[in-house]
Amino acid sequence: MSVAVIKIGVGNTASVMFALDRLGARATLTDDPKRVGEAERVILPGVGAAATAMALLQRTGLDHVLRAFTRPLLGICLGQQLLYERSEEGNVECLGLLPGAVTALRGTPEAPCPNMGWCKLSVVRTHPLFEGARSGDYAYFVHSYASAVDENAIASAHSGRTFAAAVARGAVMGCQFHPERSGVPGARVLANFLALPC
Description:
This protein is α/β, with parallel strands linked by helices. It has a single domain (2-195), classed as Rossmann fold (3-Layer(aba) Sandwich), CATH 3.40.50.880. It is built from 6 helices and 14 strands. It has helices at 13-22, 33-38, 50-60, 62-68, 78-81, 183-195; strands at 2-6, 26-30, 41-44, 73-76, 84-87, 92-93, 98-104, 115-120, 122-123, 138-143, 145-147, 153-159, 161-169, 172-175. Strands 2-1-3-4-14-13-12-9 form an 8-stranded mixed β-sheet. It has a 4-stranded mixed β-sheet with strand order 6-5-7-11, covered by helices on one side.
């Protein structure tokens, strides 16, 4: 199985690559549109600003490749946010693979923004990506923006407001949390992604 991890210049790609290696995946870190387009599955990681990440995808032509990709695609953190039509962060148009917009979290004294740390997951519908996951599992988050819980959400979490912690629509999936930093539950999600049929 070939896994392309997209190198977009922002993000915690080293941890993603180590996590995939532990699971025995043959992963390549690349920004080559041809290699991404030919991969059996793709992971789009990211930490940083939506506008910067989208500019990098557009400069390499990867935005077109991802929009046309029909095999399993997983966005992580900012990568999940880029799957949507637009982001309030910089008021930028994103990939449009999922309907809706990503909006800012509103910090409170009890839930400061950015949301950094462990949050409890609530499973809202069954999906192969979350096979074996349970409501009450904890995952590690670092983010200031998030998407709403809608028909594409498979799990939610709460920090100031309830938001989509994981999403799926056809072959397009996302985790707002970092599965590569989320211990056993995160490793299970990555293993499930690797096991999905192409």
